[in-house]
Queue: 2 jobs
Job 1
Amino acid sequence: MHQSGKTSFQDVRDEVIHRIQSGIWPQGTLLPTEVELAEEFGCARATVNRALRELAENGVVDRKRKSGTRVNTAPVKQAKIEIAIVRHSVEEQNAIYRYALVHKEITAIPPWLAAQLDLPITHKVMYLKCMHYADNRPYQFEERWVNIDAVPTILDADLVETGPNEWLLSVVPFTDAQINFCAVGADADLSEFLSTPTGTPVFQLERTTWLQNKPVTFVRMTYHPGYRMSTSY
Amino acid sequence: MHQSGKTSFQDVRDEVIHRIQSGIWPQGTLLPTEVELAEEFGCARATVNRALRELAENGVVDRKRKSGTRVNTAPVKQAKIEIAIVRHSVEEQNAIYRYALVHKEITAIPPWLAAQLDLPITHKVMYLKCMHYADNRPYQFEERWVNIDAVPTILDADLVETGPNEWLLSVVPFTDAQINFCAVGADADLSEFLSTPTGTPVFQLERTTWLQNKPVTFVRMTYHPGYRMSTSY
DNA sequence: GAGTGGTCTAGACCACCAG
DNA sequence: TGGTGGTCTAGACCACTCA
């Protein structure tokens, strides 16, 4: 790569990272200006700019006009969690995926959800319960409410073969989402579907999605006991 | 903003997003080339490039040389979780933060951790237990093992005033981390420190950090019952 | 007011890869 | 082998913000 003799923005980025990690530029240090760095590295200012901009996006440095670029004192580390389709998660573990639709009805929106989504309590939603299995063992219990107004075509969807998870993702691109993680004790439903005693600690993930300020769906996914969600950065 | 009459890369990005969301460019569509888009928007190719590059980074489109730019069929949505200092999380809720060091000893590394970090079982570590309170109510119990080899200065650190969490973050920048989330039932320690009955479901986060392939610390943080971690995208 | 980053331009060359 | 994105350049002007 980059043997063309020119200094690439990646070279600049890597050198800056190196100087920070090796202690040449400790936390809080004010870096030279873009012009100065461009001179030192023998490249255009735009090249330095792109390198530093990327580092700023990653939280490594903090940039302010007039003040300059500073090594971040408390780097806000971010872990990325991929929102995968359940089937893919299961298949990644080389397990056989199976899906089952447990319950499906059109009903009035529950009051707590109406409040949460800012919808009138007379609103109609589709209420679904599904199970996802890995090698025929309970993997995830999915409880979902879909805003029929936002996704009228769901009324004609066959949700027996393909789960609402995959169906929605392939049909309705959403723009915003809000996610919660928590630990709860298994209630009657969870106990039955996840084959575990009532009260067993289980990991739960709730997600609300919107399509341009219009609520699309709220889903509560509960994983089998012992499930661990992992990520790295 | 941008009233200078020139087309900004953000204008291009937003217009592309709009065309995708409004169905003008459905999933899988091959976009015009950068040159064509630059002509249409009346801007330089570099401007279009930056806009499309950003969309590619976010997984909205897929770019390949020669093939061109294509609207992504299965956008990989990612949620970002910020790894904050506990004190900041508490203070963000306008609660009063209090920290207490509960236990501190130099000991041999536990076998399970030695295996996990790929260290010899004769290795010495500092083992710590701490509590974090919000408005004097249990917020988080922290159990931590620190690799003394990687951070020898911790032997002289006063961990009574400042928790190891903040001390390490300010002194030892790490380069890689691996995180696990899960739900567990409170054991004796957790029950006591979090003031909750044994077996109560609690949310647990484990993090291992490395500094250039050298393990630095492994920490297990358990939150008070009812805690919810949230994020959005 | 002046210094610093933020961005756009017009042009150039390069690297990759499908046909 | 040609088309497409990837990147660098040199210069310019703008916008924010600190002193």
Job 2
Amino acid sequence: MTPPLHDAHPAGHGRRLPDTQQGMRRRNLARVMHTVSAEGPLSRAAVAARIDLTRAAVSTLVDELIRWELLEELGPERPGRVGRPGSALAISGHGPAGIGAEVGVDHLAVCSVDLRGVVRARAVRHGTNRGRPPQPVLAELTALIRQVVAEGEREGLWPAGLAVAVPGLVARDARTVVRAPNLDWHDLDLGPLLPGEPPLTVDNEANFGSLAELWLGDDTPRDFLHVSAEIGIGGAVVVDGRLLRGTRGFAGELGHVPVDPEGPRCACGGRGCLEQYAGEEAVLRAAGLTPGEDSVGQLAERAARGETDVCRALGGAGTALGIALTGAVNLLDPEAVVLGGALAALAPWLLPSLERELARRTAGTACAVAVSRLGSEGPLLGAAHSVVRTVLDDPAAVAERT
Amino acid sequence: MTPPLHDAHPAGHGRRLPDTQQGMRRRNLARVMHTVSAEGPLSRAAVAARIDLTRAAVSTLVDELIRWELLEELGPERPGRVGRPGSALAISGHGPAGIGAEVGVDHLAVCSVDLRGVVRARAVRHGTNRGRPPQPVLAELTALIRQVVAEGEREGLWPAGLAVAVPGLVARDARTVVRAPNLDWHDLDLGPLLPGEPPLTVDNEANFGSLAELWLGDDTPRDFLHVSAEIGIGGAVVVDGRLLRGTRGFAGELGHVPVDPEGPRCACGGRGCLEQYAGEEAVLRAAGLTPGEDSVGQLAERAARGETDVCRALGGAGTALGIALTGAVNLLDPEAVVLGGALAALAPWLLPSLERELARRTAGTACAVAVSRLGSEGPLLGAAHSVVRTVLDDPAAVAERT
DNA sequence: ACTAATTTGTTAAGCGCCCTGACGAAATAG
DNA sequence: CTATTTCGTCAGGGCGCTTAACAAATTAGT
């Protein structure tokens, strides 16, 4: 079985390797990396058994990966079984690292993650970016990035790529922000405004969040629907371990699925979109609160205290989510629906009505609904990990770059 | 011991050939077949240029495919350009053929298609199957199949596979009909009731219809949403040239997407499902007609005559389709929506309201809506072609079977 | 008409990649 | 202490594509 070649959009390496011996070699190098990454320290023989190659072939692959410092030899395994003990191989903690960055409405964040998946450095700056012009915001982000990169370099890490999560739609070139309403950014190419050196990938925060769920989630299936809300409502569809992007890169826009065709007008031009019932502004209004800092925390706190207006508002949002998700589930038949972002924190008050609505509108057993453990950390971690995945997906490519 | 080469389901999900030299060889054989199939007669040099291999390599691949009678040498091409003219290669008109079969509510149909995609034999039996027990129906279908296979054998064709389209949900094993309400079949394994010889694949008629659209449509994109209605409303999602099936194989159930959360009750347990507005029964009732033979023809005829009740009913169905499709388009961002099956014949009266609804609910340019040229022929052709695709996808596999 | 240039298809040599089979090394079992 | 098992490596070989060269078949130019 071939390892899942990571989606084409983040990073240019998603291209299919050619059907030549070199391409085969590169795919097999990738299969070794994926196997070791997924199943902890493993001997050459164990890897060979898993990817269906001979020990001899795996030996040469591993030699090369060690020479490139992508794998490390940990030494002899603790015996336990009969026979000569194998020599444990592990993903290296040095070498390439993924840099993830997030442009939030109320903060900036950057982190670096090594090939093992361990977060090695972080930097955050709080304060609103709403309506600020892009240049100063991205200059601040660049400073945070340089700080994180420098910190990594002191530990023997070099940046293999930079992935930036933004709260808005991103074109398929993975550089241009088409529309980010809460930042008031439009048709903006981030390339020239960020460091030129590590290759850049920009994507929607909901997309990165769903990838984080896929890669880091506890037992997230390979087919699921991810719903996350910050200000608007974002969704992402993961099919067979791959993120579905759509022709223009706009797939997953759950927020503008019609819930009631004659409902209130929406900025998108439609009527009764989900966002009119479960978006932050709508929920706050229904709860009798005014928008402000940390609105989500406010909602959770008051709901926990049992304030009926807030509970009823969240219940209504859950019902609307349930209706919109019924349509999505009928269309996609996912294994699960995962609530992420701000929805994770509010899940206790959303789930009952959401699940009730989903169940009563579904023939047979309804789709399972899970709550993300990552919450608002998802987009940042997903961004950093997406870089790591491109390295695992084609280790030979990064070796060429050293 | 050879590894499993094909997914049970059609749609060529199963390009999971191992990363060994043999796997590479088989993939390259497939690439030659696909290239010749897609771009008509081609010289060895032209194929080599397209699939990025050397002429020498392509020569050996072609030799093998000719020895297996999957390719034919047509002889020297008409010159025109400077240089030695190439020798044109074409897909063979002999050898393996795909057998497609359709269990409709009102008919049975079988056809065979050669590797070139040409329909070589057909057989049809009219008469309702509604509520009949499966055994006699499938016995009749078997008789038609044998007839079509025999006809093909007289022309040097042998059946490489049998694909059966049914109006209902099919489990992922591609043999078991889980639920076909209009036939009143439930949890029925078709394997034992059909000829054992050509390998069997069963799938939903909407799925096969969408594949036909993908493979045979005029300029159907690789990402589209296919909507077809016979009695119920079926949908199918094609992403990057692959059919999206969902975990249980139930993806594409557009008919039960909620259009109005407080609408009329539906058999599925929900309320206001699309089928309650645009299903055959609902449209006939709204038009003041009673269900019967050829209801679709009736509707089209009366609408063409300008009967206001019928036109209004179809317009309402179009509006409901537009609302449901708005949600689907927001979620998937397809390149186009294609109306197939009975909807193709009724498109002139559905399209205006459908497109209006889609446009006014979409920010930016709305998704294009196209009408299928195949209409109700889609499922049968898609089934037969799905067999042909499995041959093109792994020609070495059929060579082993001779 | 004749030569030069161009393109095709084939052939032989070569290289890369994995497999087979055999070996020494390092552990356990008796 | 010996037999057994498993691991990692090495040499030899097969397979598949590439490179390079060549003959064949056509057009372009003089």
